[in-house]
Design a protein that fits this description.
The protein is of the alpha/beta class and 572 residues long. It contains 21 helices and twelve strands. The strands form three sheets. The chain has a six-stranded mixed sheet, sandwiched between helices. Pfam families: ABC_membrane, ABC_tran.
Length: 572
């Protein structure tokens, strides 16, 4: 067995759930074909046992010891074939399940990274999380059942041929009975498909509600809203439960059909076989073989109805995955080229709408009268929103988005710490040395945070870094940003959650840590502004004044009012 695929899974076909399932199967065609072949061998090994037993019984009735031994050895050989083929088939089936699940995870995560900020605008958190919670299992089950279902179909055909060769009436009973069973099950599949889709939507909404409650639990407790949201969660949970009951009601009918319909067919085959044996049309051994076939047919027939159920669930799951894969980012890149080398600064980054410029090697600060103006400018400069932005004279919209992300890093307070080892969360590229990490922690004044942890940088960070205070999270995020060492760094209020003493130290060290790199800090903190090489004052979305912090304090009253929180004289 080869290892699970970890390389690029390729481009999925998201034009429809059936096309996606076919893409998943085609991506592991070799394993799927081998698994189907082994499933066929496994099922045929079981299907031929009744025939061999019948021959052995006829030999025993005729007192033919040699023939009895021969057919006994055949039964033994078929048992060995079943054992070997069954174990190997199961391994391939497990591989098919895991491969389909992980390929779905890979393409979904890759699409989430590609969509970036577009994803939370288009889909809820719960809907995306549900792909990993349930959809990958259903897609994996669909691949698994294809192996067993293909072998089961071949086994039914083989048994039908044997029955026809032995007795035409009995063979016709099976030949006609199997399609009638499939037709009887068919009407249950459409309502099952619809109800499963409804339940899947409700599960996604419930997961979103749970994520919101967990994320905002501290706030809910502060305002006394726990009971209100708990009641809403219970109400939504009941709707999910009721949808699950509706799905289970159809599934119960399907499960009953899996027992009843094959049982009726087996009863017919056994009854006819017994009458033919009494009439002398078949031998006692053939009667035993016919009964063995009747019992054997339960398994492949049930597998076919199970396949209908699992393929239906896989279809619903694939539809949800296709919905994610069909989304397109709001912001797309161009096919231009960066005309700079790996060690060369990319040039001046300029926002034509506001007049803001971020020049190489300069520590620039942006103070905006309205905080939303600073956020809008940062989004345009980082290519998270459309705008008239140039980099080294080239329109940013014409440059590849991956290159833009590599050269320009925008860091705001909406960023999160992920769970895992602290060092890995800070050094996301895995290339920083111990000295690099130490310098980044020093520049962000986060050394005391690491020192307080018993395991230091090897400590485990919980989800969203919830064990750290708001100020500690902000300093750790700043250390992570500095370790990324982007050529152009845009920070949005990087010291808003720290005390004045810590803010002063961060302001002093930040410029030194970014020496030789282009840095723009959007802030109204006088401590940070005073350390900047150049300060831009934005009002109404446009640069109104620029210079040093102290010069602007003396010459621009609106700037002084913004950064010192003083009202302009003469205002009511």
């Amino acid at each position: 067995m080869r290892s699970l695929p970890v390389a690029d899974p390729g481009t999925p076909d998201a034009r429809g759930p059936l096309r996606y399932l076919w893409w998943v199967a085609r991506g592991q065609a070799g394993s799927m074909l081998a698994g189907v072949g082994l499933a066929v061998l496994w099922w045929l090994g079981q299907a031929l046992v009744p025939a061999a037993l019948g021959k052995a019984i006829d030999a025993m009735a005729a007192a033919d010891a040699g023939t009895l031994i021969k057919w006994s050895l055949v039964v033994l050989g078929l048992g060995v074939v079943q054992a070997v083929a069954g174990v190997t088939r199961h391994r391939f089936a497990t591989f098919a399940w895991l491969s389909a699940a992980y390929r779905t995870v890979q393409v979904t995560v890759r699409q989430a990274a590609r969509l970036g900020a577009t994803l939370p605008k288009r889909l809820s958190t719960g809907e995306v999380v549900s792909v990993g919670n349930s959809d990958i299992a259903h897609i994996g089950n669909a691949m698994d059942i294809l192996l067993r279902g293909g072998g089961a179909a071949v086994a039914i055909v083989a048994v039908t041929v044997i029955l026809l060769a032995t007795s035409v009436p009995l063979g016709l009973v099976v030949l006609i009975g199997v399609p009638l069973m499939a037709a009887a099950v068919g009407p249950l599949l459409k309502p099952l498909h619809r109800r499963q889709h409804e339940q899947r939507d409700l599960q996604g909404d419930l997961a979103t509600r749970a994520a919101d409650i967990v994320a905002g639990l501290r706030v809910l407790r502060g305002v006394g809203g726990e009971q209100v949201f708990a009641a809403r969660y219970r109400a939504e949970s009941q709707r999910v439960r009721q949808a699950g009951v509706r799905v289970a009601s159809v599934e119960s009918l399907l499960e009953g059909a899996q027992i009843l319909l094959p049982g009726v067919l087996i009863a017919c085959v056994t009854w006819l076989g017994a009458h033919f044996a009494l009439d002398g049309r078949i031998t006692p051994g053939q009667l035993v073989a016919f009964y063995g076939y009747a019992v054997f047919l339960i398994a492949p027939l049930r597998t076919l109805t199970e396949a209908a159920d699992k393929l239906t669930k896989g279809h619903v799951a694939a539809r949800r995955v296709c919905r994610i894969l069909s989304l397109e980012p709001e912001i797309a890149g161009g096919d231009g080229r960066f005309l700079t080398g790996p060690n060369t600064l990319p040039g001046t980054l300029r926002d034509g709408e506001s007049g803001v410029e971020v020049r190489p090697g300069r520590f620039t600060a942006l103070a905006a009268a309205a905080p939303e103006d600073a956020i809008a400018i940062a989004d345009r400069l980082g290519r998270f929103a459309p705008g008239d932005v140039t980099l080294g004279g080239a329109p940013l919209a014409e440059l590849p988005l991956t290159g833009v992300r590599r050269h320009i890093l925008v860091a705001d307070n909406g960023a999160r710490l992920f769970s895992g080892r602290l060092r890995d969360e800070l050094d996301v590229r895995g290339t920083a040395t111990d000295e690099d990490v130490r310098q980044a922690l020093h520049a962000s004044c986060a050394e005391d945070i690491v020192a307080a942890l018993p395991e230091g940088l090897d400590a485990h960070v919980a989800e969203s870094g919830r064990e750290f205070s708001g100020g500690q999270q902000q300093r750790l995020r700043l250390a992570r940003v500095l370790l990324a060492d982007a050529e152009i760094l845009i920070l949005v209020e990087p010291t808003s959650a720290v005390d004045a003493h810590t803010e002063a130290r961060v302001a002093e060290r930040l410029g030194k840590a970014r020496a030789g790199r282009a840095t723009l800090v959007c802030t109204t903190s006088p401590l940070v502004l005073d350390r900047a090489d150049h300060v831009l004052y934005v009002e109404g979305g446009v640069v109104r004044a620029e210079g040093t912090h102290r010069a602007l304090l003396e010459t621009v009253p609106a700037y002084r009012s913004t950064v010192t929180r003083e009202l302009l004289r003469g205002e009511d």
